[in-house]
Amino acid sequence: MTGWLDGTPFEAIPGAVAGGLVAGTLMPALGLWVVLQRVVFLGVTLAQIAAAGVALGLVLDLPSLPLGLFVTLGIVTIAGSRRRVTRLGDASLGAGFCVASALALLFISRSAADLDEVRHVLHGNLIYATSDAVTVVAVTLSLGVAVVALFYKELLFATFDAETAAALGLRARGWQLLLFLVLAVALTVSARTTGSLLSFGMLVLPPLAALRLHRGMTATLVLSCGLGFIGTLAGLALAVSADLHVESSIVLSLFLLIPVCAGWRRHPALGLAVAALAVAGGAALEPVREDPHHEHHERATQPDPFHVDVRLEASQPRVGGAIRVGWTAEVHHEHMHEGEPPAVWLLLTGDGLFDQHVLLPDVSALPEGDSTHSGSYLVETRDRVHRVEGQLWSGPAESLDAEPLDPVHALVQGCDVSAH
Amino acid sequence: MAEPVGEPLLRVREVSAGYGRHRALHDVSLDVRRGGVTALVGPNGCGKTTLLRVILGLIRPAEGTVAWPAGRPRVGYVPQADASEQVFPVSALDVVLMGLTPSLGLLARPGRAQRQRARESLARFDVATLADRPFRELSGGQRQRVLLARAVVADPELLVLDEPVRGLDVVSSTSLVASLRRLSDEAGMAIVVATHSLDLVANDADVVALIREGRALAGPVEDVLTDDNLTRFLGTPLHVALVEGQRVVLPAGGGRT
Which of B178, B185, B128 has the alpha carbon at shortest distance from B153? Predict the structure, then answer.
C-alpha cells in the first residue's frame, strides 16, 4: 500500500489514509440511522462488545476478529429477539457498555498479549492499517451500505414509525434487527482497524453535522458520507502537519464539522468563517508530541562536522519471521576532510532482538551540502517483536570511538521503535 | 345511526390481553362494521390502545378470538402523535409514501404513479401544499392530517386511529372529525378510533365501546351513551343533553339541558 501517495504529505501513512477515508466515508451512511433513532449509545456499546469479543479471542487463542463478530452478532440477535433493540433505553445500553468494557479488560488481563496488543484491541491503530485490513473494512462497509440502500424504504418506515409499519404488515422488528446486525458487523470490523473511538466518531459525527444542514433524507445520507470524507481528510492532514495522534485528530476534525455546518445553515459565509477558524486553530498546533502511533522524526544533531536527520519505518507483516526496517536520512555536511571517515549505524534491541546495521558507511564521501539517502533491510526474529528500541551511533567505522547521536524517534509500522 | 351499518368486518370475542403478566383487557367483545365509526372511550390506562393493538395484530390475545369474517382487510393506522420520530429529515410526501411501502415489492422504489397517489391523498385532507415541507416543521394539526393521508393512501378497508384529536385546537379537531366521517360515509371505510373526545363519540360515532379497567361495554351510541353508563365508566357524574340537535356531554348538575 505504498506509491499512490508518493510525493504527498501522507506518503508515510498510506494505510491510515486508505483505512481512514474508507471508514470515514462509508460509516456515516450507517450512523445516520443510529442518530435518527436516538440510540447513539448503542453504537459505542456495540463497539465495546466487539472489543470484548476480540479480547476473548486472544484469551482462547482463537481468530479474534471472527470471534468478535460472533459474540457481537449473538448478543444483538438475542437482545433483538427478546425485545425491540431501539427500546432498550440508555440505562440498559449503559450497563451493556460497562460490562463489555470490563470483560474486555478482564479477557486481556488473562491473555498473553502485551500492552501494544491490548491497546490495539481496545483502541485500534489506524496508523498500522495494512492493505488487507483496509480491504476487509472496505468490503464490509460497502456491503453494509448496499444493504441499507437496497432496503431503504423498509428501513425508513421501520425506524421512523415501527408500530405503524408493523400494523401495516411490515416486519418492523426484523428490519430493525437487520439494521443493527449490519451495524454490529461494521463496527466490529472497523474498530479492529480504526479503533473503537474513531469508529464511533465516524458513525455519529458526520450525520450530526449533515443534519444541521436541514436537507431531505437522501441528501442527508449523501452529505453525511461527503462530510465524513472531508473530515477524515482534514484530520489526517492535521495529524501529519502538526504531528498529532491520528485517530484523535480525525475525531476532532469530524466534530468541528458540526459548528461549520450549523454556521453554513445560517449563512454560507459564517460556515466558511468557522471552517477558517478551525483550520487556523489546527495550524497553530505545534508538532511537539511524542507519539508511538505516529510518524516521528526529530533532528539528530551532531555538533560538527555534520547534521543528519534519520527517519525509520519498521513493520512486521507476519507473526515472527522478520522485521522490515526502512530508513531515510537527510544529511548536511560541509568541508569534512579531516579525521577518520564517520559512519552512521543503527542498533536495534528489544524482545530478544539485537541487531546492528550500518546506514551510512562514510558521511564524508557524500556530496557536500544537503543530500537524502534511504534504504531498507530485514532483521530476522524468532518471535513476534512488539517493541524495539533503536539507537543511532556515529563515529569511525569499526571503531570503539563511536558516540551516540542525540535522541531520534523513528517512524514505526507494525511495532514500536523508539531510539534514545 | 339507529343501527350499525354495513356487514361485519371484524369480530372481537371475549378477548383478554395485556403485556407480560399484566392484563389490560378482560373479556372484551366488539363488532366492527363496514361504513361505520366505532369509538373506544375511557379514562387513561383503561385499555383503549391495547384493544387497538389487538385489532391491528400487534398483540396476541391471551384468551378469546379476533375474527375477520371476510378475510383480513387492508388496514390503515394513525398512531398517537408522538409515536413517530420527529428528527427524521423526511418531507410530508415521504411520510405518505411510507403507507405504500408494504404494497410495493421488496426492492421496488416509489415511482411517479405512487408519488401522484400520495399527493392526491394529501389533497384529500387539504394539505397538498405541505407535500415538500419537512414533516418535523409541521404543526400538530398538519402532522395529524399528513398521518391520516398516509393511513388512507393505500385505500384501506379498516382505518384505526389512536387519539387523533389529542392536542388539537377546536378548528383542527372539528375538521379532522369531519374528514373521518366523510371517509366512513363516502368510502365505506370501517373506522375504529380511540379517543377522549366525547363530542366525537356522541355525534359522529355509530358504535361506542366504553372501557374501564380493561372491561368494555359496547353497542350502538344511542344504547350505550347514557348518563348511567358514562358516569359508571368514566368515573364522574355526566349527563347527555341535546343542544340544537347535537348531543352534548355535560357534567351532571351543570344546569344546561
Answer: B128
